Amino acid sequence: MRSFRVLILATWVILAIGSGFAQAALTVDFTSPGQDWSGSYSLGWAFSVNQPITVTALGFYDDQKNGLTESHSVGIFDADQNLVVSAQVTPGDPLVSWWRWTDATPTVLTPGIEYRIAAVTGSEKYTYNPTGFVSDPTINYLFDADHYDPTTVLTYPEVWSGETGFFGPNFSASPVVPVPGSVLLLVPGLAAIIGLRKRLSVA
Fold first, then answer.
1. What percent of the chain has pLDDT over 70?
2. Digit-coded pLDDT (tens) for 92-102
3. Strand locations in the chain, DSSP E?
4. Is 98 exposed, middle or buried (0-12, 13-18, 19+ CB in 10 A)?
5. Distance between CA atoms of 193 and 181, rounded to whole angstroms?
6. Per-residue pLDDT tens for 135-150?
7. Number of H helices, E strands in the chain
8. 51 neighbors 148 (Cβ within 8 angstroms)
9. d(Cα 42, Cα 20) in Å, to the nearest integer?
């Protein structure tokens, strides 16, 4: 009986490892800011993904890396303008690179869709045309995106102006690691063993 329980436990451990995620990474970054600006807008940038990825955290730009003065709504919209994931970045959230970060509900983004990430900037600065801009290989940076009018509400950013991003927002993500076929074979095998034990116990 004990060995059977060990078998079940080992199978679930293997499944958990096989369906896990790689280490999360910033999707965009830069070495130094470009033009800093202010005004309460819902703005960010558009992108697509090269493979399924899972959003793990959302970030907001801290121009001096010395703390935010207010909280900021950050979210990712799909091509139908649906908000697929969002969170509030607060002044006390940790700093990584140029952004303060908060955990997001794990959300899978899929290839073949244009996404737009936006943040409400409020009274704080945002930047564009930064120096040393890079993007993670899992995504395709497309263009900057901005809502038409000043706002204090997270809104789908419709327009672009040809700048390199409005930061603003950022997100971290992990590539989805598929479960190996050999691991999946353990599931029906385990089910067969359970069925056999039940039949033997009845007999």
1. 76
2. 999 999 999 99
3. 25-26, 28-29, 35-37, 42-49, 53-61, 72-77, 83-89, 95-96, 99-109, 115-120, 126-128, 134-135, 139-146, 169-175
4. buried
5. 19
6. 999 999 999 999 999 9
7. 3, 14
8. no
9. 33
